[in-house]
Design brief:
Blueprint lengths: L3 E3 L7 H14 L5 H12 L22 E7 L6 E7 L7 E4 L3 E7 L1 E10 L5 E11 L3 E4 L5 E5 L6 E7 L3 H4 L3 E5 L2
Parallel strand pairs: 1-2
Antiparallel strand pairs: 2-3, 3-10, 4-11, 5-8, 5-10, 6-7, 6-9
Length: 181
């Protein structure tokens, strides 16, 4: 999977600091992954599309592939928050995740195809839904129900925020594995 990632000390806006505090409170409850994802989604939703959340630098894309900007990595490794900038045509491979994940569309629109793994020999993927996520859409999920492909099918930049139940600055990626279709 080709992405560019900016993993350096991020600038933190007041609104972003507030969001991090709300996510920290939800994660600190120590609930099972799916419940944690749902709580974090509730905390993330009011911030989607809000002015002053991201700096101009955190909204910069890369012409060759979607770009990840690390916004926060919790000191104990319990979660991280990233902004993903999608220019027209950018997409992920079909993939799943190392932990629970919450995504919210901050600007623009993303298209998503969701899959489920059908056991067998060999196991195979079956598409279960095609979803268009406009600005303000937030969803949370946890493995094993987290296989999908995301793309920007529009002619405009899209920005999404992703909260992962892992320290992406340490492990490098939220992707556990990719799938060939």
């Amino acid at each position: 999977m080709s992405t560019t990632t900016a993993f350096r000390a991020p600038e933190v806006t007041a609104r972003l600091a507030h969001l991090v505090g709300r996510v920290r409170e939800a994660v600190s409850r120590g609930l099972p992954p799916q419940q944690t994802a749902e709580l974090v989604a509730d905390r993330l939703a009011p911030h989607m599309g809000a002015p002053g959340l991201l700096t101009d630098e955190q909204c910069v894309g890369d012409p060759s592939c979607y770009r990840q900007h690390l916004l926060h990595a919790e000191h104990d490794g319990s979660f991280s928050l990233l902004a993903l900038v999608w220019l027209p045509g950018h997409q992920t491979p079909v993939h799943d995740h190392v932990s629970w994940c919450v995504t919210g569309v901050h600007r623009g629109q993303e298209s998503e195809r969701r899959y489920r793994l059908v056991p067998g020999s060999p196991a195979r993927l079956v598409a279960t839904a095609d979803v268009v996520n406009p600005q303000g859409t937030v969803c949370g999920f946890a493995p094993p129900g987290d296989i999908h492909k995301v793309r920007n099918a529009t002619a405009h930049k899209a920005i999404s925020l992703h909260v992962y139940g892992a320290d992406i600055s340490r492990i490098g990626s939220s992707v556990r594995r990719t799938y060939q279709i």
